[in-house]
Amino acid sequence: MKRIINLSVFLLLYISSQAQFSLSYQLEANPDFAKYCKGYDLKTTDELEVIDDRVVEFAYDKEGNLFEYFYIHGVRYVNSDDAIDRNNKIYVSFARAFELVSYDARVISAAGTIQTLGKDALKEGTREDETKVQYFAISGAEKGSFIEYYYLVKRSPSYTGTWFSMQGNAPVAKAVIKIISPENLVFISKSFGGFTELYTDSSLSERNMLVGIQENISAIPEEPFSNAGGNKMKVMYQLYYNKAKGKKNPYNYGIVSQNVFDNMGGKLEKEEQKALDKIIKNCNIKFAPDEESKIRQVENYIKKNFAFVDNSDDAYENIASILKSGALNETGATRIFYHIFESLGIEQEIVVTTNRYSIRFDKEFESYSFLTDFLLYFPKLKTYMAPYAQLYRLGLIPGSYIENYGLFIRKISIGDLNTGAGKVQYIPAYPGKHTQHNMFITASLDNTTDSLNIDYKQEYTGYYAQNFQPIFDFIEKDKLKEFEETIVKSLNEDITIKSIKIENKGGENLMVKPLIVNSKLSSKHFIEKAGDKILLKFGDLIGPQSEMYQEKQRVLPIENDYNREYHRIITFMIPAGYQIKNLEQLNLSVQPFKAKNDAAGFVATYKLEGDKLTVTCDEYYNQINFPLAEAELYRTVINAAANYNKIVLVLEKK
Question: Which residues partner with 423 through β-bridges?
């Protein structure tokens, strides 16, 4: 449960525990930051994280209770108005904190003048989501300034698995992380994304210390078709051995699996069982012919009739309370679905994984840090369900969980005792054919030859259908027309919609039937005149396309959200008395991976039968990850579609 921090309490107690922290946290009287910046031309550098120094120290209080100190010391160099604006608020992490021990902030000008901001620099504010935040309000910085700050908080300990990101939007001259603990507590760590592995430092008396130091960390770029968050340098640590109790690896996945199963699938109390039976009755599954139909019926009922809330209160996890309030959280959703399917005799496994856009699940390092999100896996159907993802259905889980690992927990019975046994397994991505956007277009010029009449049919499946199909269950009637027009206007905003007919609306059709959108349109956008010639923006008929035209050398490997396919058939009726001079542009084949695994490609061909021009265009992406060495090949496929989008056919009189 999140702790609400009262800033006034911090200000009253900020000096009460100074002597217990093992390291010094006083700012230098005459700092020399130039020694850290030797590898950088500060005159041309916009922003630099000069020092990023973090310390986590575990200690016991007088009563023998474990707590944790968290210390961070940062120095930032700013050399532009934008950099100054980005750093005028430096946010402070008070998560789990119950005492602010000490803090300070100051600005050192390019001339070396030191401006101490004082205790009043620490402010409290409110984010857009109304959560309270604390930050240093930085004033007086100018181009060439260094902003220095530190704070030390005392907080409840986190030792079952924690990670820090050591890389951000600005380069880092020197990053340091230290994990300090009493002699009896031995921590282990693992680094990701290229950060150095932590080593044991024995310089502290009666303390264990892990240390990691890395210099000249580059900024993580935001590049198209990449996973910046998942690729950032990170450090993960957790308690491995308590010498006083003789226990090693107390948070292994064997114990975790038992705990998760007890929490999610353990025997229900009488009140919860009665509520569950009522929910099952309301699901009306008596006519469902098979397991898959039963799962879908249950899922549709729960996801359409209950509110999904981001709240850790127990009331949203207890099935009886959920039935009364009509609201549930992630734990509540997982418990309800698991117990319903258990009651129906449907084989299932609880899967606990993490968001690959934050941190990828590492199959070699057992840590609670990877256990953040729940799925259900059905072995007989070989497919997944995301209990808490209200706009997803069986056979489609959020893309942040695919191409990742997870802890799969199955029920095992020992006599009358049921418990969970876990195994780390891979969660594969869906193939490209699973997610399609298919287009069937018939177009012709109107009598004035100034506008194009278009019969436009679209078919959406998988993730593309998920963007729209379940929304129909929740959208207000007065917003429905606008929503439907938005789907059609994905072709182009500059169109006149004459009619729309949509089939297979609603979440119950997701992964069962494609969303089909039939529309009749007219538009002048696609036509231009050049003397007696008609210019047809034929490429625009495939819709807007992504581009990968970049001047800088790419840094990150390619990583897609999901695999996908596009199939387009465009028929254009050439007006009488006209011919097209540049038809050869319509043939295009870019398949750079054809000889290997055909992971991505773009192929377009045309056929001319009298005045009927038919173009078939197929584009496909059947691989999530491409190494950096193949990024250029991938780029040719993306840009093939973008270039095709620019084709203009020239119609001239015969």
Answer: 408
Query: What does the alpha-carbon distance between residue 379 and residue 348 come to, in Å, rounded to a whole number?
Result: 6
- SS3 annotation, 362-412: CCCCCCHHHCCEEEEEECCCCEEECCCCCCCCCCCCCCCCCCEEEEEEEEE
CATH class, domain 253-427, is: alpha beta
| Sole residue written with tokens 């542009």 | 585
Measured CA to CA, the distance from residue 141 to residue 147 in angstroms comes to: 7
Q: pLDDT digits over 130-180, tens only? A: 778 899 999 999 999 999 999 999 999 999 999 999 999 999 999 999 999
pLDDT band per the 50, 70, 90 thresholds, residue 415: confident
* Predicted pLDDT at 2: 30
**Residue 472, SS3 per DSSP:** helix
Burial of 326 (0-12, 13-18, 19+ CB in 10 A): exposed
On the 0-12 / 13-18 / 19+ scale of CB atoms within 10 A, 424 is: middle
Q: Kindly give the interhelix angle for 291-305 and 270-283, rounded to the nearest 10 degrees.
A: 100
Q: How confident is the model at residue 491 (pLDDT cuts 50, 70, 90)?
A: very high
For residue 455, the cross-strand partners are: 442, 520
Helices then strands, each counted (H, E), the chain: 11, 36
Which run of H or E residues covers position 558?
Answer: strand 558-559
Say if CB 336 and CB 319 are below 8 A apart.
yes
Q: Is the pTM of this model over 0.90?
A: yes
pLDDT tens, position by position, 602-643: 999 999 999 999 999 999 999 999 999 999 999 999 999 999
Q: Which residue in this structure is represented by tokens 């078709």?
A: 225
pLDDT in tens, 168-219: 999 999 999 999 999 999 999 999 999 999 999 999 999 999 999 999 999 9
Q: Enter the DSSP assignment of 221.
A: P
Task: Round to whole Å and give the CA distance between 320 and 472.
Answer: 29
Which of the following CATH numbers is that of domain 7-248: 2.40.50.100, 3.40.50.1820, 2.60.40.10, 2.60.40.3140?
2.60.40.3140
Give the C-alpha separation, 195 to 528, whole Å. 55
DSSP run (H or E) holding 278: helix 270-283
Please state at what angle helix 291-305 crosses helix 330-343, rounded to 10 degrees: 150
Q: What is the pLDDT of residue 550?
A: 75
Q: How far is residue 610's CA from residue 31's CA, in Å, rounded to a whole number? A: 81
User: Are residues 506 and 613 in contact, defined by beta-carbon separation less than 8 angstroms?
Assistant: no
Report residue 508 as tokens.
């119950």
**Percentage of residues in the chain with pLDDT exceeding 90?**
88
pLDDT tens figures, 26-58: 899 999 998 999 989 999 999 999 999 999 999
Residue 366 has which token pair? Answer: 């057992």
The answer to whether the CB of 567 falls within 8 A of the CB of 436 is yes
For the chain, domain boundaries = 7-248, 253-427, 432-653
3-state SS assignment for residue 333? helix
Tokens 């039976």 sit on residue:
277
How far is residue 418 from each of residues 421, 479, 482, measured CA to CA in Å? 10, 49, 51
Instruction: Check for a shared fold between 7-248 and 253-427.
Output: no
- 3-class SS of residue 519: strand
